[in-house]
Amino acid sequence: MKLTIIGAGSTYTPELVYGFLTSSGGSASISEITLSDVDPHRLDIVGGYCIAMADSISSGISFSKESVLEKALLGADFVVTQIRVGGNVVRARDEEFVAGLGLVAQETTGAVGFMKAYRTIPVMADIVSRVRMVCPDAFLINFTNPAGIISSAVSRATGWHNLVGLC
User: Fold this and answer.
1) Alpha carbon distance 35, 48 (integer Å)
2) What is the pLDDT of residues 17-36, one digit of tens each?
3) What's the pTM value of the predicted model, to 2 decimals?
4) Ramachandran region of residue 4, left (φ > 0), alpha (ψ -120 to 50) or beta?
5) What torsion, rounded to 10 degrees, do the Cα atoms 134, 153, 17, 139 define?
6) Residue 5 and residue 140: Cα distance in Å, rounded?
C-alpha cells in the first residue's frame, strides 16, 4: 500500500511518519510513503529527517520525496493533506490582526480559522481534482485546519466524498 503525504515539509510530518513506522496495527501494510511539498527546501530537510528516522528503525517502508504533485500521487492508496497556504508568515499576520481586535486568534476556529479556510479551500479543491485524475480510488485524509470546514467545503465543491477531515 502506498501513502502520499502532501505538505510533508511541515514540522508535524516526523510525528506522523513515526506513528506509521511504529504502529503495530493498520500501517503494517504500508510499503511505500511519498513525501510531497511545494517548498523543495522544507521537503529536503523534513523529508531527509523522516527517511533517516525510518532507516534507523529499519522499517522496511520505502520512502521518496517528490515536489511534483502528480508524480507523488502515482499509485497512491491513501493521501494525507496537511498544507498551510501562505505559510507561517500569513498565519502570524492573521493571528496578529485578529488579536489586535481583542478576539481569540486561533487557526481552528473563529476569524483566523475562517481566513485560513478561505485561502485553503480552493487549493484543496485543486488537490482533490488532481487526486481524482491520478489515483481515483485513493482515500484522502485531511489534517489541514480548520479540518471540518475545509473537508466539508471541498467535498461539496468537488463532489468527492472519499475523504475525511481529522483535527
Assistant:
1) 10
2) 999 998 855 456 899 999 99
3) 0.93
4) beta
5) -40
6) 10
Decide if 6 contacts 34 (C-beta within 8 A).
no
**Residue 26 CA neighbour count, 13 Å, CB half:** 3
Assigned C-alpha cell, 107: 487557526
Q: What percent of the chain has pLDDT over 90?
A: 89
pLDDT tens, position by position, 112-166: 999 999 999 999 999 999 999 999 999 999 999 999 999 999 999 999 999 999 9
With contact defined as beta carbons under 8 Å apart, do 73 and 4 qualify?
Answer: yes
Provide the Cα torsion 8, 29, 161, 117; round to 10°: -20
Exposed, middle or buried by CB within 10 Å (0-12, 13-18, 19+), for 26?
Answer: exposed
The C-alpha cell of 157 is what? 465543491
